[in-house]
Amino acid sequence: MCYHPNMDFHSSRRRFSACLLFCLCLMISISRAYGTQKMYIVYLGEKKHDDAALVTASHHDMLSTILGSKEEALASITYSYKHGFSGFAAMLTDDQAQDLADLPEVISVTPNQNHELMTTRSWDFLGMNLDQQPPNLDHQPPNKLLQRSKYGEDIIIGIFDTGIWPESRSFSDHGYGPIPSRWKGVCQLGQAWEGTNCSRKIIGARYYPAGLDKADQEANYMSPRDINGHGTHTASTAAGAVVEGVSLHGLGVGVARGGAPRARIAVYKVAWQTTKRVELSSIAVLAALDDAIHDGVDVLCLPIVLNDDSFGALHAVQKGITLVYGAGNSGPRPQVISNTAPWVITVAATKIDRSFPTAITMGNNQTLVGQSLYYLLKNESSSEFKPLVHGGSCSGEALNDTIINGKVVLCIFENFGPTQDILPEVITNVKSGGAFGAIFALYTIDVLSSTDDCLGMACVIVDIDIGFQTATYIGSQRLPIVKIEPARNITGKQVPAPKVAFFSSRGPSVKYPTVLKPDIAAPGVNILAAIGDGYGFDSGNSMSTPHVAGIVALLKAVHPHWSHAALKSAIVTTASTKDEYGNPMLAEALPRKVADPFDYGGGSINPNAAVDPGLVYDIDPRDYNKFFACNMQKYKICNITTTLPGYHLNLPSIAIPELRRSIKVQRAVTNVGNVDAVYQSDIQSPIGVKIKVDPPTLVFNATQKVHSFKVSITPLWKVQGDYTFGSLTWHNEHHSVRIPIAVRITIQDFYADVA
Ligand SMILES: *[C@@H]1O[C@H](CO)[C@@H](O)[C@H](O)[C@H]1NC(C)=O
Ligand SMILES: *[C@@H]1O[C@H](CO)[C@@H](O)[C@H](O)[C@H]1NC(C)=O
Ligand SMILES: *[C@@H]1O[C@H](CO)[C@@H](O)[C@H](O)[C@H]1NC(C)=O
Ligand SMILES: *[C@@H]1O[C@H](CO)[C@@H](O)[C@H](O)[C@H]1NC(C)=O
Ligand SMILES: *[C@@H]1O[C@H](CO)[C@@H](O)[C@H](O)[C@H]1NC(C)=O
Ligand SMILES: *[C@@H]1O[C@H](CO)[C@@H](O)[C@H](O)[C@H]1NC(C)=O
Ligand SMILES: *[C@@H]1O[C@H](CO)[C@@H](O)[C@H](O)[C@H]1NC(C)=O
């Protein structure tokens, strides 16, 4: 009980102690009501009203009972989630959050988190105007899936990113029909964004700035407009219209177009440029997911790292949306993969069959080859020899005593690590010294776009051994010199591809170890796409994610009634595990190795096979709760005793993280090919494991469209083992339906895990 200040005080002493007590009480109640408030996400599950206004009103009521008044509730609530699911984001003290969590209708209360976009490149805006011809659809390269899907016309792809640059030619709506009538989204106006910025191509745009401070607001357009370039790049990769003759100074020449060039784009700007990086928060992503469900999006492209919004993504899936996330750029370490919920598609990144060889010639006429995006300026007719110096690691310290003005600097990174993170700093060091160019010697990784910051400097990436040869030359000369030729571009079979990119995050999933992740790999290295009014290269899982989103849009156009699980299955089971020469695909790592399912899931995406997969592993989206309620912070609906092991979910893969004795795993396949079909099983057992399938043959006809089968998995020895890999393929003369298998034999619990 607190004293009231109007109490009658007889002695000064009593007055003093009463006052002290009163102040204490006041402080306690202040800290309860106002003390360190944090943003919390309160999740209530399915919404209880169809009317969104009623759902929001119920949120205000609930919050009012906890905070004491309607006014405080309105001041505290930031987002009300009311379309696809029920919940809200609000500023709360820890005690208030606890009080809410204790309410029976509340499923979870979790603190908001900030996340990063997935990219390996720094965020300098790289815009350049190219004078090119208007788009021309007739010159489309022939492609079965593209044509069958009518280039994705009338499929709506939602992009969760930094917004969009609507003036880019990649977003011209020339020749588009009316906006699909089912579309219920809006064109939210804002700074440098008018109603006319939406079109028949960009059919909707929203932005979610909650939590940005004043400085961050000033660094951004407070509208769907993209100041950064990232969202424009990903949107044009997923759904950019056809733009011919796009290149960067003659490099990577070709037709720029998205995977689904006729698909419609819905922009959800959830990521914001801050002084240091690009940030996004869980509360904004949930608000955008809620809106996307309302608006009628078909496919969502989310090149972002998220760990705590699984319920939002699950609701979107249950409402018929297919979600495509990136695996992350924390590779090649294992167990770092993000976004591994079984209901989303998680994409790894590969290198494509294009490279940009660049000749560097020393004063002794020795010529070595690296890679660069270097080109001659208009007033330069040929390359010239320049003085060459050794800059060591090219840290500020290492360059301190070296005069590099007008010279080419050799930088050697002997420590193997995430070089893409070091490069921007080193480039700044070299640039501020006035260098003409730089040769960066790294262990084999190819992240050319990390040299974007070189703008105006000749930056070449070479393998570490070429770096050592160059150093030897420098050591042997009094006045070492070097000439850097402009980059050439070669494509096709000379470049072994695809190959899993160094930075691509690897499995297994820590949060969902019974779900094999990633699902699929797609191109994500040196991708040329729209940035501002021009085009530029970029690398990262942000680039591979929209490739898959575009392909899913095409598949959805051909198969409008397929579930998200059927679409994912089609992509995974038809993927390729070989390179263009039929050799096993490799993964960049240290050391380089043959890729396994934790690098690429089913393999490298094969869109034209995915449109006709033969069989699919389908899942009723309600099943996810049976298996994974306990992973989703839904503690109130989680019952450990009735939760089934995740590996029984009908996924197009099998992952057994702890195999102690023989187990049987259930799967079912649905025939989506010819009605009468016979499939035989083909098993590649992982080392140390015996796998059997029962029945080994599946016969489909007009009445028997779905077949269940059992996969028994038996350890052959008792060890505390590592993961080993295999596959199960159902095949007939037309189809090969392959799923990857990862198994680890254990005899005791793992404490510190090593993949
Ligand atoms: C978008 O709106 C701005 C005004 O805010 C206008 O200057 C610009 O031309 C518009 N762009 C397109 C593609 O309509
Ligand atoms: C390098 O080649 C040029 C032209 O072929 C020749 O003139 C020059 O002498 C050579 N230099 C050395 C060091 O071999
Ligand atoms: C070429 O032009 C750039 C600026 O565009 C200038 O910095 C450079 O000095 C010029 N080079 C020559 C050889 O004139
Ligand atoms: C470079 O050298 C100067 C003078 O020796 C020193 O004051 C400075 O801290 C050094 N800078 C770095 C980055 O090491
Ligand atoms: C790159 O390749 C294209 C097509 O093969 C070619 O037209 C272009 O000249 C090449 N650019 C350079 C700089 O080699
Ligand atoms: C979990 O399920 C079991 C079996 O149905 C039941 O006995 C138990 O009460 C449930 N526990 C909770 C917390 O609901
Ligand atoms: C399909 O196969 C099942 C069992 O294999 C059989 O019972 C059924 O009669 C067949 N239906 C047709 C239409 O052939």
Q: Helix proportion of residues, in percent?
A: 10-25%
Indicate the CATH topology of the largest domain: Rossmann fold
**Ions, cofactors, ligands: which are bound?**
2-acetamido-2-deoxy-beta-D-glucopyranose
Rounded to the nearest angstrom, the radius of gyration is 28 Å
Shape: globular
What multimeric state do the chains show? single chain
Biggest β-sheet, characterized?
10 strands, mixed
Strand content: 25-35%
Straight-line N-to-C gap: 57 Å
Number of continuous helical runs? 16
User: Superfamily at the CATH H level of the largest domain?
Assistant: Peptidase S8/S53 domain
Domain count: the total is 5
CATH architecture label of the largest domain: 3-Layer(aba) Sandwich
- CATH C-level class of the largest domain is Alpha Beta
Low-confidence stretches: 1-32, 119-143, 751-755
Mean pLDDT: 84
* Number of DSSP-assigned strands: 39
Overview of this protein structure:
With 755 residues, this protein is an alpha/beta fold. The protein has 5 domains: 1-34; 35-112, 2-Layer Sandwich (Alpha-Beta Plaits); 116-350 and 513-627, Peptidase S8/S53 domain (Rossmann fold, 3-Layer(aba) Sandwich); 357-488, Glucose Oxidase, domain 1; 653-745, Immunoglobulin-like (Sandwich), CATH 2.60.40.2310. It contains 16 helices and 39 strands. Strands 6, 7, 10, 13, 14, 15, 25, 26, 29 and 30 form a 10-stranded mixed β-sheet that branches. A 7-stranded mixed β-barrel has the order 17-18-22-21-20-19-23. A hairpin with a 4-residue loop joins β2 (77-81) and β3. The chain is globular. The termini are far apart. Residues 1-32, 119-143 and 751-755 have low confidence and may be disordered.
